[in-house]
Specification:
The complex is a heterodimer of chains A (251) and B (290). By secondary structure, chain A is of the alpha/beta class. Chain A has a domain of 170 residues: Rossmann fold (3-Layer(aba) Sandwich). Chain A has 10 helices and 10 strands. A 6-stranded mixed beta sheet of chain A has the order 6-7-8-3-9-10, sandwiched between helices. Chain A has a 4-stranded antiparallel beta sheet with strand order 2-1-4-5, with helices on one face. The two termini of chain A are 32 Å apart. In chain A, 45% of the residues are buried. Chain B is mainly α and 290 residues long. Chain B folds into 2 domains: 46 residues; 236 residues, MetI-like fold (Orthogonal Bundle). Helix content of chain B is 75%, strand content 0%. In chain B, helix 5 packs across helix 6 and helix 10 runs antiparallel to helix 11. The radius of gyration of chain B is 24 Å and the shape is flat. Classes of the chains: A alpha/beta (251), B mainly alpha (290). Chains A and B meet through helix 2, helix 3 and helix 6 of A and helix 7 and helix 8 of B.
């Protein structure tokens, strides 16, 4: 299988603090890859290195390579603005813009120069259907997105991300602020979306990783302890620390 | 509850009532003084207030005196001040909050802007006289006055805009960046729309402060007596507070009442400007759920 992202010898520093230590990983296309591990283990930091969202934090340093389409994403050839269009992101808390549902979805397209009404209308309908939100909101797509429930808002944020037609969608604990029913809907959605997108999801819940992911990486203190097919990680972990974590002995 | 505890409770409740009374008195002090002032001014000024008062020129006869040139002068100065100060102030705030790196230099600028907001207005008058009137040869014109006033209120606009920009949730900025937008696109797409009510409120309040300032404009060279209507930025002028000050200093007793009428006009304009601020804020206020 061909990797869409190849991470080689990645180190990441917040000032003096080394938050990621020599991470090596291949992320495979049209799969769901989950990052698990206790708080502060570096899984979110790692996720944010993949679309250079860490650029906005001052006093950080990246070493190593992340290869995407044959190019190192931290090299001069890669424009971060373009990279983020290709590698989208969904955040921990639903963060729709205080605009209409419609304008939320087309925001990125408009900023990338797409302004034709027919095109935008089509994208809105298509992406709302893709995130199974269309039937719920079809009568109020020109109303404020803030009127939606938390779960609906998060699905809207996913719609906003996939409206850009990205290759990869990064999800940073997308269900941690949601109730169980909304969580279930997002999980179903992730399984549906992997047909068209590569999904990388950070999760606090091991059950969630087991339910939806094809590959799982276990992070501890900035290191990847183990990275393998999800079934192997959960049934037959090679590392003692992984086993301790997934059996609930710590974390 | 035993006796001892009951006694203590009573004492605590008593102290609470006393403090309640003291704080109420503090509040009433300001309100009552203001009310007395208002009543006095209204009593003196209202009989003099008429359409003629608004349309007439100043005169040595109190009955014929009017406020027209000062009113137009104030409106001209305020309009130009807003046009100069608003874009520069908001631009500075966007630079400091979004573009500038967090280094010592930026810190130094921010600190000094905060200090400038506290500099007495007459100092700005001296600056305006030296720089705009003389160095840039603008003369004692509305334009020079507007630039002086713009410099005076710039720190207030910058600080208000900075606060408004800081209040934009970082989650929204990140959402915008994560969709492949540049900094400028995020500024126009998320930051300005969200911060606009705060920016507008702060700016309008700053402008209403400029409306009431007399000291810097006396230094810059507003006229004491104006017998013409200012028609453009290069005309000489006077403004409402200076006109009021002149009337208040006149020997004839009736002029005190004319001054009161002038104060009412100034207050009505100030209240008008402040209501615009409130209306704009409510109109653009975006209610965010946390």
């Amino acid at each position: 299988m061909e990797p869409i992202l190849s991470i080689r010898n990645l180190n990441f520093y917040y000032g003096e603090h080394k938050a990621l230590k020599d991470v090596n990983m291949d992320i495979y296309k049209n799969n769901v890859t989950a990052f698990i591990g206790p708080s502060g283990c570096g899984k979110s930091t790692f996720l944010r290195t993949l679309n250079r969202m860490n650029d906005f934090i001052e006093n950080v340093k990246v070493e190593g390579n992340i290869i995407y389409e044959g190019k190192d994403i931290y090299s001069k050839e890669m424009e971060p603005v373009e990279l983020r269009r290709r590698i989208g992101m969904v955040f921990q808390k639903p963060n729709p813009f205080p605009k209409t549902i419609y304008e939320n979805i087309v925001y990125g397209l408009r900023k990338n120069g797409v302004n034709k009404k027919e095109v935008l209308d089509e994208v809105v309908e298509k992406t709302l259907k893709a995130v199974a939100l269309y039937d719920e909101v079809k009568d109020k797509i020109h109303k404020s997105a803030l009127e939606l429930s938390g779960g609906q808002q998060q699905r809207l944020c996913i719609a906003r991300a996939i409206a850009m037609q990205p290759d990869v969608v990064l999800m940073d604990e997308p269900t941690s602020a949601l109730d169980p029913i909304s969580t279930m809907k997002i999980e179903e959605l992730v399984l549906e979306l992997k047909k068209d997108y590569t999904i990388i999801i950070v999760t606090h819940s091991m059950q969630q990783a087991a339910r939806i992911s094809d590959y799982t990486a276990f992070f501890l203190n900035g290191e990847v302890v183990e990275y393998d097919e999800t079934s192997k990680i959960f049934s037959n972990p090679r590392d003692k620390r992984t086993e301790d974590y997934i059996t609930g002995r710590f974390g | 509850m035993n006796n001892e505890e009951l006694k203590r409770l009573k004492k605590r409740k008593m102290l609470n009532s006393v403090m309640h009374g003291i704080f109420l008195a503090c509040t009433l002090f300001g309100v009552i003084v203001l009310a007395v002032l208002m009543i006095d001014i209204l009593r003196k000024g209202l009989p003099w207030l008429s359409f003629d008062f608004l349309k007439n020129f100043p005169s040595r006869f109190p009955k014929k005196s009017g406020i027209y040139p000062a009113l137009l002068g104030s409106l001209w100065v305020i309009l130009l001040t807003a046009i100069i100060a608003f874009p520069i102030g908001v631009g500075t705030a966007i630079y400091l909050e979004e573009y500038a790196e967090d280094n010592r230099f930026t810190e130094f600028i921010k600190l000094n802007i905060a200090n400038l907001a506290g500099v007495p207005s007459i100092i700005y008058g001296m600056l305006g006289l030296a720089v705009f009137v003389r160095l840039f040869s603008m003369g004692r014109t509305i334009l020079a006055a507007s630039f002086t006033m713009a410099i005076l209120i710039l720190p207030i606009i910058i600080i208000a805009s900075q606060e408004a920009i800081k209040s934009v949730p970082s989650s929204l900025k990140q959402a915008s960046y994560a969709l492949g937008t540049t900094k400028w696109q995020t500024v126009t797409g998320v930051i300005i729309p969200y911060a606009l009510p705060g920016i507008l409120t702060g700016s309008i309040l700053a402008i209403s402060r400029a409306l009431g300032e007399a000291a810097p404009l006396i230094v810059v060279g507003a006229l004491a007596y104006v017998s013409f209507i200012p028609k453009g930025p290069f005309d000489q002028f006077t403004v409402l507070p200076i006109q009021i000050f002149n009337w208040a200093g006149m020997p004839k007793k009736e002029f005190q009442d004319v001054a009161a009428a002038g104060i009412i006009v100034l207050l009505v304009i100030l209240l008008g400007v402040n209501s615009v601020a409130i209306i704009l804020r409510n109109k653009y206020q975006i209610r965010m759920k946390d």
